[in-house]
Specification:
Strand order of the largest sheet: 1-2
Shape: elongated
Oligomer: single chain
Largest sheet: 2 strands, antiparallel
Number of domains: 1
Order of helices and strands: HEEHHHHHHHH
CATH class: Mainly Alpha
CATH architecture: Orthogonal Bundle
Radius of gyration: 19 Å
Distance between the termini: 20 Å
Strand content: under 5%
CATH topology: Arp2/3 complex 21 kDa subunit ARPC3
Length: 222
């Protein structure tokens, strides 16, 4: 997809089918407990659901990445409405939706850059996915922190819980921001980046190889 080519109706249909499949996977991983979000005390959940967003964006292009990021964000927003603890802070759209749209929109370009830079595709995918996951964390953490003052409202405090509210109070400062940033990077961010760089890279490489074989087979038949 790096070259500008006119796609056949069959190719367009195939890509739309794959996009629909990834959207379904993201929604399933969002709403089935512990499949896409693994909860840990005093921190937002560790994510696995970002991996199909990365794979779909890398395979299908910018528009698909945008749509998958939007799906990821809206799913996170809905899930936050009934999630306990710090995950409830994702009830605010600028925390749950905006960073995920930006994340999805840049996937294809970052992957394409590293594929040009590195001749081994799986290594390029792995580095891209690790860096993109770090970027996702960088985009999300300030938004979480921006929601801290709102967490002192009675309704939100009830959903966040007293233990988490104490943690928010203790970190509701500039120094606290760096504590939150460092804590999430060393827990959520590290695990999410390693999973994306290993599992995600392997899956996208296999799918891409199969896709190329199918394209070659279709060309030979024509």
């Amino acid at each position: 997809m790096e070259k500008s080519v006119v796609k056949s109706n069959k190719e367009r249909t195939r890509e739309m089918t794959i996009l629909a499949m990834f959207i379904a996977i993201i929604l399933i991983m969002t709403f089935v407990p512990y499949l896409g979000y693994v909860q840990i005390p005093n921190f937002p959940s560790i994510l696995l659901v970002h991996i199909p967003v990365l794979i779909g964006g890398a395979l299908l292009g910018r528009k698909a990445g945008f749509l998958l990021g939007l799906t990821f964000g809206i799913g996170s927003l809905i899930k936050a409405s009934y999630s306990p603890g710090l995950d409830y802070l994702f009830i605010f759209p600028w925390v749950s939706v905006l960073p995920r749209i930006l994340f999805g929109a840049v996937i294809y370009d970052v992957v394409r850059f590293f594929k040009k830079l590195i001749n081994v595709p799986i290594v390029a995918y792995s580095i891209s996915f690790i860096l993109l996951t770090v970027l996702h964390t960088v985009l999300v953490v300030p938004m979480i922190f921006s929601a801290f003052p709102l967490a002192f409202g009675a309704d939100i405090a009830d959903n966040v819980g007293s233990a988490n509210l104490d943690w928010i109070t203790a970190n509701n400062s500039l120094n606290g921001f760096f504590v939150v940033l460092g804590g999430i990077f060393t827990t959520n961010g590290l695990v999410e980046a390693l999973l994306a760089g290993s599992i995600g890279a392997i899956v996208v490489e296999r799918i891409n190889n199969q896709k190329n074989k199918q394209t070659e087979s279709d060309s030979e038949r024509e």
